[in-house]
Amino acid sequence: MPASRPPTVLQVLPALVTGGVERGTVEITHALVRAGWRAVVASSGGPMAHEVERAGGVHVTLPLRSKNPFTMRRNVGRLRQVIEDYEVDIVHARSRAPAWSAWAAARRSRRFFVTTFHNIYGGQTVWKRFYNSVMSKGARVIAISRFVAEHAHRVYGVGRDRLRIIHRGVDLVRFDPEAIHPSRLIALAKEWRLVDGAGVIMLPARVTRWKGHMELLDAVARLKRRDVQVLFVGNEQQRPDYRRELERRVSILGLDGLVHMVGNCRDMPAAYMLADVVVQPSTEPEGFGRTAVEAQAMGRPMIATDHGGARETVFPGETGWLVPPGDVQALAQALSEALSLDAAARIELAHHSRAIMIARFDSQLMCDATLAVYSELLFPDQVNTLPIDGTDSMPPAGAEG
After folding, report:
1. Cβ–Cβ < 8 Å for 79, 54
2. Residue-level pLDDT at 392
3. Nearest Cα to Cα of residue 28 among 385, 364, 375
4. DSSP conformation class of 388
5. Reduced to 3 states, what is the DSSP secondary structure of residue 175?
6. Which of 144, 145, 180 is nearest to 298 (CA)?
7. How far is 336 from 42, CA to CA, in rounded Å?
8. What is the mean pLDDT of each run of 10 residues along the chain (401 residues)?
9. CA-to-CA distance for 130 and 94, rounded, in angstroms?
10. Cβ-contact 254, 277 below 8 angstroms
11. Residues 6+ positions from 139 with CB-CB distance below 8 Å
12. pLDDT recorded at residue 389
């Protein structure tokens, strides 16, 4: 890389609509620009594209959301042109379909290729495992948790020398209880028609079966209380059949009037402040579970399922509860305990939760570690190349997380 220009990183992802992958892309763009590097992002576009540009990066619109083989093949040439036009040094792929095009473009352009495993990728068929395998081809492979790292190593053969564990971070300026003006809480409470004095149980996740909405309904029914409200906060993703199934379950369990499906929320920091307890009852392991970190940064008691990335983000007896997958009775018991916390216990838990999130999951830590990975490749003589893992080393082979 010529010393006369700053290093340049191209991040590649399907789109910039909403979600943790997209938010992380914008945060890395900010970090690159602050460090004096150049940041380029290629995607099919979306509402968050302007955030890339506001951060000082360049956004290039390409049909990278497509899984059509012919489009993916043409994207190789398109990305090679981007690499040439912007003198890209590192190509960082964040999703499988565009990763195939990005990998081919980086290889043909003789540029470094980096990937991020944002979750575990199931491979029930040979074809599916092959499709997923592109994420293992990076000169460095970033995993967002120890759980995901072990999966990448065990299932896709990623050598531990190439694996770097970088937990996803949370913007602790945005997710700060002290920064929430009461007017924001009042506006949301009015919009959602919350009843004063009722305990608020919040499940912030897209409305899809594996996120555990059914299990939460069953657990709430076991509480046998009418002084609670359940908020399902998240996109329904055009799943009207599942919504109707949930509505039927609400009626069968006698929870009418207690459950509100409020859709997307643009002010999640304020939303968390309305909750007495936040729940992540996923029936399948989360790769990380950004919701848990956001909620705890806002000082909310957290209940999550005891598998996957939640084991690295929720600390039983300190910040919340972990319950066995599918154990509705254990979930109900944890809900009862969380709702029973007195004011002093809530204040102590809130302070402790936020302190842990600051120490372990600040987005700045994520950004610094990611730029260190880039520097390993571009400046190998100047950087310690030991595996990066914010707190611990890789788990032993066969451990889940």
Report:
1. no
2. 44
3. 364
4. P
5. coil
6. 180
7. 47
8. 84 90 93 97 95 96 95 97 98 96 97 95 84 95 96 94 95 95 96 93 93 97 96 83 93 95 93 97 92 96 97 95 96 97 96 96 96 96 57 38 31
9. 17
10. no
11. 112, 113, 114, 162, 377
12. 53
Question: φ, ψ for residue 267 (rounded to 5)?
Answer: -125, 70
As a whole number of angstroms, the distance between CA 299 and CA 279 comes to 13
Please give the backbone phi and psi of residue 117, each rounded to the nearest 5 degrees, phi first.
Answer: -80, 105
Whose tokens are 């991020």? That residue is 116
CA gyration radius, the chain:
22
- Across-strand partners of 43? 61
**Rounded Cα distance, 223 and 144, in Å:** 35
Residue 353 is encoded by which pair of tokens? 């939760």
At position 332, the amino acid (one-letter code) is: A
Buried (b) or exposed (e) across 367-386, using 16+ Cβ within 10 A?
bbbbbebbbbbeeeeeeeee
395: left (phi over 0), alpha (psi -120 to 50) or beta: beta
Amino acid at 300: R
State both tokens at 80: 């090679």
Nearest to 262 by CA among 294, 230, 292, 296: 230
Tokens representing residue 19 in the block: 């979600």
In total, the chain counts a number of residues equal to 401
**Cβ distance 204 to 293 under 8 Å?**
no
User: What residues contact 257, with CB distance under 8 A and at least 6 apart?
Assistant: none
Q: Is 39 exposed, middle or buried (0-12, 13-18, 19+ CB in 10 A)?
A: buried
How far is Cα 125 from Cα 123, in angstroms, rounded to an integer? 5
Residue 107 CA to its chain's centroid (Å) = 28
Residue whose structure tokens are 């964040």: 94
* Nearest of 46, 47, 45, 28 to residue 37 by alpha carbon: 28
**Torsion-angle region of 230 (φ positive above 0: left; ψ -120 to 50: alpha; else: beta):** beta
β-sheet bridge partners, residue 295: none
For residue 350, give every residue at least 6 positions away whose Cβ sits within 8 Å of its Cβ, in sequence order, or none: 177, 299, 300
Give CA–CA dist 161/78, Å, rounded: 31
